Each structure stands twice: as structure tokens, then as C-alpha cells.
Write a sequence for this structure.
């Protein structure tokens, strides 16, 4: 499992419709970036063999401070009009923001929170809005699904 962040132009990263980042746009961006490389695949050695993942837009950020040739890498994967990163740390989130600005997009988490230049999200703001809604209706959050 893990938690994914997305570089997206859509209102919500999971929307089926909306302004998508095209694979060609992503490839062009990667070509113009001296510290990102388009690999198209990733491999990891496991006790039972090699795990290989292939994706046309799979790229690696070679400028990542944790980058190790045979170990830790910051992978950016083009998928359904978005660029997806699994379990990014603060450094990767800040890089995602820079990429998003270049692509006229935003960085959005699985729960809809949006990340800024400092790598922080508006999650606390969204949580407060949800709590205010619950108080305004005098229902607890879990009661919204009960009749």
C-alpha cells in the first residue's frame, strides 16, 4: 500500500474528465529537465527474483538527495492524465510542486488535500471545514450515512 500524491490539472485527481496532462507533455518536460530521466521501467531485486514494473511515463528524479543507483529512488509515473508518486517525503513533495507549476497543475493527495510550495497541505483547513459542517447540522460525522 502507501499514500499517493498526484500532479494534476483536474478538479480532483480521480475525475474521469477534466484537463489532463498528456503523455507527450510529460515526456517533453522530462526531456527538458536535466535531473529527471525517463526510464519506462523500474526493477527491484526480491528474494524470489526480480520485480519489474513497466510504464511509458515512468521517470526517476536523479537529483533527489536520497537517490541511490541500486536502492532508493524518487519515481514519477504518468498515469491517466496525472503524474503519480508513492509515499513522497518533503523533498519530493517540494519537487512535485515545482513540476506542477511548470505544467500549470497542482499537487493533490488521495484525500483531496492540496500541497503548496513549502510541501505542506491544506489538510487541517479541510478537516476544520468538515468539523464545522458536522457542528452546523448537529450530527456527528458517522451519522451522515444513517437515516
Amino acid at each position: 500500500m502507501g499514500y499517493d500524491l498526484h500532479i494534476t490539472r483536474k478538479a480532483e485527481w480521480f475525475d474521469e474528465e477534466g484537463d489532463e496532462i498528456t503523455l507527450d507533455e510529460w515526456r517533453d518536460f522530462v526531456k527538458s529537465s536535466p535531473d529527471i530521466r525517463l526510464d519506462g521501467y523500474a526493477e527491484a531485486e526480491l528474494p524470489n527474483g526480480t520485480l519489474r514494473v513497466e510504464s511509458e511515463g515512468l521517470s526517476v528524479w536523479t537529483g533527489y538527495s536520497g537517490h541511490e543507483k541500486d536502492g532508493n529512488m524518487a519515481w514519477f509515473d504518468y498515469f491517466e492524465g496525472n503524474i503519480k508518486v508513492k509515499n513522497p517525503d518533503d523533498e519530493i513533495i517540494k519537487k512535485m510542486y515545482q513540476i506542477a507549476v511548470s505544467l500549470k497543475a497542482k499537487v493533490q493527495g488521495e484525500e483531496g488535500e492540496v500541497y503548496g510550495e513549502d510541501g505542506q497541505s491544506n489538510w487541517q483547513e479541510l478537516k476544520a471545514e468538515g468539523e464545522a459542517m458536522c457542528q452546523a447540522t448537529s450530527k456527528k460525522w458517522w451519522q451522515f450515512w444513517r437515516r
